[in-house]
Every structure is written in C-alpha cells, then in structure tokens.
Write a structure and sequence with these properties.
This protein has helices at residues 17-27, 36-40, 46-54, 74-94, 113-127, 148-158, 169-174, 206-215, 226-238, 259-277; strands at residues 6-9, 31-35, 59-66, 98-102, 133-137, 163-168, 190-195, 245-247. By secondary structure, the chain is of the alpha/beta class.
Amino acid sequence: MNLADFGMDSITLAGPLEAKLAACRAAGFSQIVLWARDLAEHPLGMPHAVQVVRGSGLRVTALQVMRDYEGLNGPLHEYKLDIARHLLQACRAVGARLLLVCSSTSSHGSGDDALIARDLAKLANSAVPMGVRIGYEAQSWGRHVHTWEQAWEVVDMAAHANLGVVLDSFHMLASGADLERLDEIPPDKIALVQLSDFMWRDLPSNAERIETAGHLRVFPGEGSHSAELSGMLRRLDRARYRGDYSLEVVNDDYLQLPPELVCARALTAAKWITDQVLRRSLQVRGYAGQTW
C-alpha cells in the first residue's frame, strides 16, 4: 500500500471543481472520486467540466452516486435505468471506471433479494460497453439492504463479473457491523473501500446516522473508532485487497476551509493508515518539496 492507493472524494472539499482538482494534485494524490454534481453544476457547462477533469492529471476512481435504483417495477424502474445510463455516459466522459450505487431508501422498492440482484446485474450488463464497473454500497439507513453482508449477498447472487461491492467504513461503524467475515469476500469483488470515522461511539437511530454522515464525519485517525478501523484495514490487507481507497469525509467544518488545508489532513490520515495501522512505510513521492 502506498499513496497511489488513496484518493480524495470531491464532496470533502469546498470550492469550484478546478480548485478541488488542483488541491488534490498539489497534495500528491493521483486519484479522486467525483460527484456527478461537480460536473453538472459547473458554471461553464458539463463539456467544459469534463475537459477540466481530463486535463487535471488525476485518475477518476469513481463517479457518485446512483440512488434508489434497485427493486423497482414498471415506469419507476425504466426512469431510474434511464438516469443510470446518463451517469454511465458521464463516467465514460471523465474516464471513471466505476459507478457507485447506494442501497435504496425508497418505500417503492422491493426487498426481494433476487429482484435486487437482477436489477444490479442488469445495470452491470449495461455498463460493460461503456468500460465502467458497478459498485454496490450498503447505506446503514437503507430500507432493505443496510449492512455490508447484505450488500455482498446480493452482489454474489447477481453473479456478474462487472459488479462488485463497495465497503464504506462509516456505514459499517455506524451500524456496529461485524467485521470478522470481511475475508469471505474475494478481493477482486471489492470495487472500492471508502474511509471515514466519526467522533462519538454510537449512532443508534437512522436520523442520527443521516445527520452525522452528511455533516460530521472525520478522517481516519481523528475519530472514536480507530481500533475498529485498524482491524478492518488489517483484515482487508491480509485478504490481499489491493484496490483503491477513497477518503470520503463529509464535514461542514471542512467545507469552510481552503481545500489545500483539508487535503493536508487527508495526507495525515493516509499516513496514519499506513504507518500506524499497517506498520508499513509509505512510499512517498515528494510534491512541492514535501516529504514525510
């Protein structure tokens, strides 16, 4: 594991798209997870935003996020499938190899695992011509799928090579997930690992989880679950996961700071993960004279 394995999530940073990309690049990150709104809301239009991303030198790890997709029928299913196709086109435009799909909170969606798996396989199949993979993530307040085990079960049931599971440490920690079975997931079926923590031990209600997730996450090493995060990361490392890690830290305080300062905190978190958790030296390329 080295710095090239880590990326920022654009939702973590304040400012226009250009400033986010420049701060990540200057800090030494080589990849970023983009939210589709970063492209759609660019004042000069989406084609210009795509050019900015392509010219940044950053690899786009993934594009966020398809919501409330699975388990629908009739016009609702067709509507969501159409939205997903547009997001896949955006993935192709910026060179993102992964589209993230989070578990549905919709009261209109079925909890039938076979139907959920079928819908995910259908989307994964649609993504193949685009050169994009689908990553499915359990939200801890999802209506039917709200644990990583459930997300993995339906991904496994879908049995599609272009579909993997996304592991999000916030949702896992917030729901008190059992992490001992993580090594049951084949490492090539983990599409992405998203990392963050929070400051208090328990989030017993969905309302508290939603509030904390949307406003009060912190970087690994800053929160109250360092031991659990350490165990999770060591387990994934022993299972030979060698994919990407994204620092997805949604925090209102960070959105009031220059992106350069927030990226510096992210670098500290990456160093904490490697030096303190995995007990390995981080292979660092110097940027702007900075070394660890």
